[in-house]
Specification:
This protein is an alpha/beta fold. Helix content is 37%, strand content 15%. Helix 1 packs antiparallel against helix 2. The structure holds pyridoxal-5'-phosphate (PLP).
Length: 353
C-alpha cells in the first residue's frame, strides 16, 4: 500500500474523530427522520429528510476522504450512474460507452435516455485508444471493464477529451479509489456501485458520485435532491462500517485473486484465464455452459450469485445476462477466505469436473 493510499485511509478512518465532542459516539448514529425541527426562516441545512441526513453525511465524509473530492451518495450504483449521466449529457449529445462494460448503463441510455435525445455508441474497451473520440460529449469508461476485464488508459482518454471539451466519466466499481483514482488521472467524474467492495458485505445497495468540478457537483447534488434519490440511513451506516475495513478486505481479496491466477493459469479444465493484473475479479473460460455451471455449483467455497466484491468468493456465468462473453465464461470474485483453503477447494472442484 503506497504512502498516498495510507494517508487516504487514515483520513477516512479518522474522518469523524476531529469533530467529536466528549461523550459523542464513535460510530455514526443511525438517524431516521423525515423532518427536522424547523421554525421560522430556515437557517439550517437540516430542513427535510429528502435533502440531507446525518448518517448519509457520515458515509459521504468517509468516501470523500478516499476520493479526495466532493461526494454525493445514492441508494444504488445505478442511481449514481443515472445522476452522473444527468449531470454530463444534454439533449443532442452522443455518449460513448464500453460494449463490454456493465450492461444496465447501456440499457439506461438505449431504452430511456434515447427518448430524451441522448444517444450512445458502444465499442469494446480495448478500442477506446484507437477510436476517434472527438464527436462525443461524454466518454464513459470502465477499466477494467466488467465482465470482460479489458483495460484502457484513463489518462490518455482524459487528455483527448480536454481538447474537445468532452466529459470523462469513470465507473470505478471494480477497483475502488484504493486501487485506482480516476480523478487524479484526469477524469471529470467518478461513479461507483458501493454495493460491491466499498460496502463489502453483500448486505445493502449503495452508490456514489465523486468530482472535483464544482459545477458538476452542484448538478449531481441538485439531481439527488429533486429526484428524491437520497440513500437510506441504515444502508449508509452499513456502508460506513464496511469502509472501515476496506483496505484489509481488499488486501486479502487481491492476494486470493493472485494466488488463484498463479495456480489456475495453466489448469487443463480452464480454456482461458483473464486477470487485469490488479483487483479481485478473474475471468475463467470453461469448455461450455454446463461445465461452467457445474464448477460454480459444486465448489463449496463459491457462492453462486450475481454481483462481486463481497467477503465471500462468488461466481456467475455472465452470458446468462446476455453479456458478450463465451457461454463458458465465469466471472469469479475472490473473497476474504483463507488463501490456502480457497485455492484447495477450487482446485479440488476443477479436478472433479
Ligand atoms: C461496474 C458496475 N457498475 C454499476 C453497477 C450497478 O450497481 P448497483 O447494482 O449497485 O445498482 C454494477 C452492478 O453490478 C456494476 O457491476
Amino acid at each position: 500500500m503506497s504512502k498516498e493510499s495510507s494517508d487516504l485511509i487514515m483520513d477516512m478512518l479518522h474522518a469523524r474523530s476531529g469533530s467529536l465532542e466528549n461523550g459523542e459516539p464513535i460510530s455514526p448514529p443511525i438517524v431516521t427522520t423525515a423532518k427536522y425541527k424547523l421554525s421560522g426562516t430556515p437557517d439550517t441545512p437540516y430542513t427535510y429528510g429528502r435533502d440531507i441526513n446525518p448518517t448519509v453525511e457520515a458515509a459521504e465524509a468517509a468516501i470523500r476522504a478516499l476520493e479526495q473530492a466532493s461526494v454525493v451518495a445514492f441508494p444504488s450504483g445505478m442511481a449514481a450512474i443515472t445522476a452522473g449521466l444527468m449531470a454530463t449529457a444534454n439533449a443532442g449529445d452522443r455518449v460513448l460507452v464500453p460494449s463490454d462494460g456493465y450492461y444496465v448503463s447501456r440499457v439506461l441510455l438505449e431504452d430511456i435516455l434515447s427518448a430524451h435525445d441522448i444517444h450512445l455508441d458502444a465499442i469494446p474497451t480495448k478500442a477506446f485508444s484507437t477510436t476517434d473520440l472527438r464527436s462525443y460529449a461524454v466518454i464513459w469508461v470502465e477499466t477494467p471493464s466488467n465482465p470482460g476485464l479489458d483495460l484502457c488508459s484513463i489518462r490518455s482518454i482524459a487528455e483527448t477529451a480536454k481538447t474537445t471539451g468532452a466529459k470523462v466519466v469513470v465507473d470505478n466499481t471494480t477497483l475502488t479509489p484504493l486501487l485506482q483514482r480516476p480523478l487524479d488521472l484526469g477524469a471529470d467524474l467518478v461513479v461507483s456501485s458501493d454495493t460491491k467492495a466499498m460496502a463489502g458485505h453483500s448486505d445493502c445497495l449503495y452508490g456514489h458520485v465523486a468530482t472535483r468540478d464544482e459545477a458538476l457537483f452542484e448538478k449531481v447534488w441538485k439531481w439527488r435532491k429533486v429526484s428524491g434519490s437520497i440513500p437510506d440511513p441504515f444502508a449508509s451506516f452499513l456502508v460506513h462500517r464496511g469502509l472501515m475495513t476496506l483496505e484489509l478486505r481488499l488486501q486479502r481479496m487481491c492476494a486470493n485473486a493472485e494466488a488463484l491466477v498463479d495456480r489456475l493459469e495453466d489448469h487443463a479444465a480452464i480454456q482461458a484465464l483473464k486477470y487485469p493484473g490488479i483487483g479481485f475479479v478473474i475471468g475463467l473460460t470453461f469448455a461450455d455452459e454446463a461445465q461452467a455451471e457445474r464448477f460454480i455449483d459444486d465448489c463449496p467455497a463459491i457462492f453462486a450469485s450475481t454481483s462481486f466484491g463481497g467477503i465471500h468468493t462468488s461466481a456467475e456465468r455472465r452470458a446468462r445476462w446476455g453479456d458478450a462473453v463465451p457461454d463458458g465464461y465465469v466471472r469469479l470474485s475472490a473473497g476474504c477466505e483463507p488463501t490456502d483453503a480457497l485455492v484447495s477447494a477450487i482446485e479440488a472442484t476443477l479436478e472433479s469436473l
